[in-house]
Amino acid sequence: MTTTSFVYFFASILTLLLFIDVYFLISWQRFARLRNWHRVSYLLPWFLGIIFFIFYAITLYFRLENKIPSDIEKIFLAVASIWYLPKILIVPVILIKDLVFGLKKFFSKFSGQKNTREDNITSNKRREFIKSTGWVLAGLPFILVTRGVFHTTYDFRIHRVNLFLDKLGDEFNGFKIIQLSDIHAGSFISNEPFAKAIEIIQSFKPDIIVITGDFVNFHPRELKIIYSELSKLQANHGVFGCLGNHDHYMSEDEHKILISLLRESGINLLINENSKIKIGNSYIQIIGIDNINFRTHFGDFSKAMIGVEKEYPSILLCHDPTNWDRYVRNRLDVDLMLSGHTHGGQVGIELFGQYLSPVRIVYKQWAGLYRDGNQYLYVNRGLGVVGPPVRVDMPPEITLIELNSNKIS
């Protein structure tokens, strides 16, 4: 992203946040004044709104200067997320309510119908009840986001997947793969949450560990906070990884440093290349593709597939799941593609056993397992966060995949 486009992007975000906050605060002030509440009840929120807006503007400046946020700034960002995110849900409801009441009042002037005093009293009571109930319900998004910031963000969940691969040799029956994705090292305030994740991972004694991109947000220095723990990752047949889009959001020299640090930590980073794991007379082929999405095209599938043998199962590490439909499904001889990138939207609501998340509007394959014939895609929900440091009903994921050479009944 160029400096100019970056400025435009964040200026748009700041403008949207300013509009949402101002509209919310005006509505709250009107509500409080009609009830003769103390001035502090609406002046204090205005003061906080100014503070948070200034903070976001400063964050923009530091980002342009390529400055990594300090721990205090990360904490402030978390609190600011509690301040802003719920209003993204609340303000559209207030807007619709104001529009409905405004139109009703406008058309009532031309209807010629005059309400009696009792009708006006009943109408005012109904309107008062709706407003009061609305503001009570408005507190629910704040509760959900607060819980997401302080609990769900590091509430690591294990997702278990059993897969049958028809090319898999009996020697690999029960082969265990741990998948991580979207670590985003810069999102961690301390190494404690990541250390907890490592402890969980190692308890499964995996045969291999794969990490499908976005190790950092914007700079290799972010790895420092988790590097000692990252170096502790161990598996019977090694740790493999591919790069994500955020691993390219830096200068060329910084990108080279990032690659060097990852490889020094013990990760077999596959950049448009492949590797073989042999047990007995059977193989599993691990293919790693560099990032490809709508803005960047560093991946080279032709290069990555050189030497891949059709008679043995192949596992593709590819950060962005949109490449499943564009390049892989029914096109490449790949049995299993492992991706991340979507974070599961970081926000979701489970209704009747189905997750609803805004990310489903953007991504066809957004979380979990997908299948087309003998080809599989698994999209990991991510370990870290990007943007607002919050997860609402979308906990960070550690995926445990067990491969089977016999069909599961």
Reading side by side through the largest sheet, how are the strands ordered?
1-14-2-3-4-5
Strand content: 15-25%
User: Considering DSSP H and I runs of 4 or more, what fraction of the residues is helical?
Assistant: 40-55%
Terminal-residue CA separation: 49 Å
Shape: elongated
Output the structural class: alpha/beta
Q: What is the architecture of the largest domain at the second tier of CATH?
A: 4-Layer Sandwich
For this structure, the CATH topology of the largest domain is: Purple Acid Phosphatase, chain A, domain 2
For this structure, what is the CATH class of the largest domain?
Answer: Alpha Beta
Structure overview:
This protein is of the alpha/beta class. The chain folds into two domains: 3-148, no CATH class; 157-404, Purple Acid Phosphatase, chain A, domain 2 (4-Layer Sandwich). Helices cover 43% and strands 18% of the residues. The chain is built from eleven helices and 14 strands. The chain has helices spanning 3-34, 40-64, 71-111, 117-137, 139-150, 192-203, 227-230, 252-264, 301-304, 323-328, 359-362, and strands at residues 157-164, 175-180, 208-212, 239-242, 267-269, 273-279, 282-288, 314-317, 336-339, 349-351, 354-356, 368-372, 375-379, 397-404. The strands form three sheets. It has a six-stranded mixed sheet with strand order 1-14-2-3-4-5. Strands 6-7-8-9-13-12 form a six-stranded mixed sheet, with no helix packed on it. The chain has a two-stranded antiparallel ribbon with strand order 10-11. β3, α7 (227-230) and β4 (239-242) form a beta-alpha-beta unit. α3 runs antiparallel to α5.
